[in-house]
Design goal:
Strands 1-3-4-2 form a four-stranded mixed beta sheet. The chain is built from four helices and four strands; from the N terminus they run βαααβαββ. The chain is of the alpha+beta class.
Length: about 130
């Protein structure tokens, strides 16, 4: 029996991003309580509005508006560290956080994202 990881899709790219206060709110000021929506807002702020935190890194995919629109779906297809889910479920904690975003798929096709806190406690693979 082969391990499931043998069939895992490759990590196409990864980047660290610092999630700040403005990333937890949509453009109407409403709170975002879904990790996918927060990551999407972070990339909108980074690529469209040039709002960048000191820990933000560029990514090779989400400069495109169509790809940014897919972020919540890609997060649902991939997964989010349980700690982040719990933290975001209780509302914005009032401080910036750095997350590792892994972009997974096959060459030419992003299929999902993996989101982990960038605390060095171990990361999920694609």
């Amino acid at each position: 029996m082969m391990a499931q990881t043998a069939f895992a899709e490759p990590n196409l790219a990864s980047y660290y991003t610092t999630i700040g206060r403005e990333d937890f709110y949509n453009s109407n000021g409403g709170p975002l309580k879904d990790v996918g929506a927060v990551v999407q807002q972070d990339r909108v702020n980074f690529h469209r509005f040039g709002l960048r935190h000191s820990g933000d890194e560029a990514d090779p995919y989400f400069g495109d508006q169509t790809m940014r629109a897919k972020i919540p779906e890609l997060v649902r297809a991939g997964g989010v560290d349980q700690y982040l889910k719990k933290l975001l479920g209780s509302g914005w904690p009032g401080h910036s956080q750095t997350w590792l975003i892994q972009i997974c798929g096959t060459p030419g096709r992003v299929t999902h994202l993996r989101i982990d806190p960038a605390d060095g406690d171990g990361y999920s693979d694609c």
